[in-house]
Amino acid sequence: MPRKLASVLVLGGRGFVGSHLTRRLIEAGIRPHLFGPPMADDLLADLAGRFDETHGSVEDRDAIVAAIHDTGARALVTMAAHSVGRSGLMRSGEAEADRALAINVLGFRNTLEAARQAGVGRVVWTSSTVVYGDADAYPPGRVDEAAPRRPITFYGLTKQMAEDVAVHYRNRYGLDVVGLRLPLVLGPGLWYQGAASTIVALIEAAGAGRALRAAFHDDPMDLMHVADVADAMVLALTRRGQAEAVYNINGFTARLSDVTAELEGRFGSLDIAIDPEPQARTFPLIDDARFRSRFGFAPAFGLADVVKSMLAKEPANA
């Protein structure tokens, strides 16, 4: 039985994932109130007037408390994370470690403390599958939530620390906080650079009939459409009953050659050359059976659906 929510406070609601969550909440009849800094790209221009907003930072705990009280929100979602321009979260963590700690860990702690003080019923937040270490550090096969966390990036380290902070607030205060470990996320509105940008460039080049030459690996990757991420977050927000502290979530697994084959099936021969390049870091593939079982989740987007959605360049919620 889903819980009824009149208002949800969404920290980072103007970002890539956050903007899709905002759309999904509005479609579900929930008026979101966004909290966060102004963004250079307006991914919600077509929804003006259908959500409320407060500009602020997760470094300002009092501002978060005030936003919760002003909106009367009984649930909170946070995707706040440190980013340097368009460089992506992992690169930002390496480039500005102190700021990554300030936002991803201390800012997250501010958020949980504000939620605790205000009596928020449930907090859902985005962790990452990069809390796992190099694939070689694990047995063959997929890893589930019982596998040890061994982050090899600073961004992954901040997410591991944030997960520990969340468990502390669950154990000490009984705060209902649920983390979702995201894999590589794709979809319309992706504006930052990172591992996904090569996939985006490949799809865009094929759609425009342009030539493309890039260097990339052909190892299997866990991928997820951003609309499926938004649906998973809404389920985590609204489904009643006890939830675990953290879950892996995933859409599907594919190689870059699978993407190329899908595009060739649509457009025929492509003027695209991908030079094989070993991954700088290899992550294990994940098992997301716990989340699917607990929340009845089934992703709507496979590889063909992701390609179709990104070629259309329109916000998509299945």
How would you explain this protein's 3D organization?
The protein has 318 residues and is α/β, with parallel strands linked by helices. The protein has 10 helices and 12 strands. The two termini are 21 Å apart. The model has no long low-confidence stretch (mean pLDDT 91).
List the helices and strands and how they pair.
Blueprint: E1 7-11, H1 16-27, E2 31-36, E3 52-55, H2 61-71, E4 75-78, H3 89-95, H4 97-118, E5 122-128, H5 154-173, E6 177-182, E7 184-186, H6 195-208, E8 212-216, E9 221-225, H7 226-238, E10 246-248, E11 252-254, H8 256-267, E12 272-276, H9 289-295, H10 303-312
Parallel strand pairs: 1-2, 1-4, 2-3, 4-5, 5-6, 6-10, 7-9, 8-12
Antiparallel strand pairs: 9-11
Helix pairs in contact: 1-7, 2-4, 3-4, 3-5, 4-5, 6-8
Structure summary:
This protein is of the alpha/beta class and 318 residues long. Helix content is 40%, strand content 18%. The strands form three sheets. Strands 3-2-1-4-5-6-10 form a seven-stranded parallel sheet, sandwiched between helices. It has a three-stranded mixed sheet with strand order 7-9-11. The chain has a two-stranded parallel ribbon with strand order 8-12.
